[in-house]
Amino acid sequence: MENIYIETYGCQMNFADSEVIAAILEKSGYTVCGSAEEADFILINTCAIRDNAEQRVRHRVRELKAMQNRRHNLRVGVLGCMAERLQSRLMAEEENVSFVCGPDAYRRLPEMLAQVRSGQKAAEVELSTTETYADIEPVRLAGNGISAYISIMRGCQNYCAYCVVPYTRGRERSRDSETIVREARTLFEQGYREVTLLGQNVNSYNAEIDFPELMARVAQIDPLLRVRFATSHPKDLSDKLLEVMAEYPNICRCIHLPVQSGSNRMLKLMNRKYTKEWYLDRVEAIRRHMPDCSITTDVIAGFSTETLEDHEATLELFRTVKYDYAYMFKYSLREGTYAWKHLADDIPEEEKTRRLNEIIALQGEIALENNKHEVGKEYEVLVEGESHRSKEQLYGRNSQNKVIVFDRKDAAPGTYRRVRVDSCTAATLIGVLVQ
Q1: Could you tell me if 1 and 31 are in contact, meaning their C-beta atoms sit under 8 angstroms apart?
Q2: How many helices and strands in the chain, by DSSP H and E?
Q3: Sheet hosting strand 226-230, strand order edge to edge
Q4: Please, which residues have CB within 8 angstroms of residue 280's CB and are 6 or more apart in sequence?
Q5: In 49-82, which positions are buried (b, 16+ CB within 10 angstroms) versus exposed (e)?
Q6: C-alpha closest to that of 301 among 292, 291, 293, 311
Q7: d(Cα 32, Cα 17) in Å, to the nearest integer?
Q8: Are 136 and 23 in contact (CB under 8 A)?
Q9: How many CA atoms lie within 13 A of 428 on its CB side?
Q10: What is the pLDDT of residues 235-287, one digit of tens each?
């Protein structure tokens, strides 16, 4: 049978989706191969959250045209959020794209590939109100055999003004909890030691149990299985979840809590459904239940009508919360969103860049200061692999999701080891084995 090569761009959800795609195609007799050169079909699983993500995909599609000129039977397809957003327009604009497939249509891929093989083009982008792929056991692609993602829900209905996700992934729907627990248990039995439960807003998981109960059930599989989750929406972060996290030591002490702006005016314009005061109350609740919990965030610089006062409010929030890490972006207008229809993209690009750089510089200072406080502390580290800089060193992460690099000695990937932090940079802790 023919070979499939999958390239994945964007978020953790996309990587989890690629593993579902691989499972569907392998069940139909295709072989997932390790390079584009071996492939009969190249599937590009895409992100549409920012314009630069889409431009990277378009650049890659055009790069592949040279390969297709050498190998006339090679077919290229675009999958995921960008396919959903642009649909058949994408095939018209990129003539070497033979098929597009949206996030809810992956079960149709085998017949779509057969259609393409017969010389036709194919498009399937209908969104579903029920599809969760709960019955499909993902094929783990290029992982380390230690950490894995488990998608627990799909879609989003928060409709933040800047965000295209509700239009590319549809409304929220949750997997049956038993399928999630079973998948996590199977991974543990296969030697995995960490799972991350994924959703656009995991706090709104709503099956026969709620998200805190789901977290407890996964944590109960085994104390040696670390449990993480992403992403939390501040408006839904409950004390019940924090209580469950505090109860189970193997639920990791790290919460990603996207803020997007420190200005109440901006938050209202963004339709974030919380205020700065609510957000800070949730931060205080996290630290009350788990004083050692790290907090990370997302932020947007230069959203519509953002003033210098609004920008300063964001900087002040960063100084107050002291995030351990932040994903920081310039605002990118996305077609189809509320902002695209109703709000002007009126901050000059150079000013967006200046504000973004100011946030980045501040966060760098905060991260370094936070890491300096880690020096002298000991942590249980899940060893993940060799350091990129030296084969004599390994790296792993602590419960707070901070990377710690240390001399190899007798440690091995997939094991837990006690490490003392001796020094740091803004991004990395450097330590030594203590047992």
Answers
A1: yes
A2: 14, 19
A3: 147-151, 194-198, 226-230
A4: 317, 320, 321
A5: bbeebbebbbebbeebeeeeeeeeebbbbbbbbb
A6: 311
A7: 14
A8: yes
A9: 11
A10: 999 999 999 999 999 999 999 999 999 999 999 999 999 999 999 999 999 99
